[in-house]
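quick one before i forget lol
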Amino acid sequence: MFRIVCMGIGYDHEPDFEIDRRDGYPHYLALLVRTPCRMRCGDEIRSYPANTFVLYDVNVPQYYAADGVPYTDDWVQFESDPKIIRSFGLPLNEPIMIPDWTHPEYYFTLICSAFFRGFNSDTVINSLFTAMLTDFSVVPLMQQKPLPYFGELVAIRQQIAAQPQKDWHAEALAESLHISVSYFHRIYKEAFHTSLTQDVIRSRIDAAKNLLQSTGLNAEEIAVRCGYSSPEHFSRQFKKSIGVSPDYWRRHGIAEANPASDPSAT
């Protein structure tokens, strides 16, 4: 699907850096500029913020430059089937401002690592390219109808998954964003198609399954680590979410879990 011609990450240049390729390349160029920059869009050269991405088509003019400050970019020159590129729906030759919370530089770092290590690189590169272009293709749609506080909501959701044992209250989270509780609930549901409460429960159950599978902790210890006030509360919510008791899930695993055969599920 994707064959890398050459690439580089973290290339630093002086504030007067400028590229003006009138004929482009005979292959695609994926460019991420990590610093403020200037790019040509149509007939006009404009200033763009850090984390601007552009996917240049084959044999098209390319212009990008520093914007009066030191310049850093990541880039990949690659070959692919035009039908595959079009399937992502990503606009070609148009700068796209990638939000900071997506950490776009991670994709380039991982692709670079796979490219230079050599072994098993084709499979990994194809997967990473597919993930990157799929992820970036959503950004223009979000910019057309931006959801307020989306980056902050993503950060909150990541914190919930990392610390399910904490007391997560919409009131405190809404206050941290300086918005009302009702508005917080609305935009959270709009962003993730689930409620804050359901996300907290899901994170706690996921953490509990991991502890049941990988440790010898008893139900009381797992309940504490996952934010439950008692083993009974933990057990009830686990059964409601999974369909079987924690003990049954630990013994049989989710693949074999059958509520009908779990005596404690009735």
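fyi The first strand starts at residue 2 and ends at 13.
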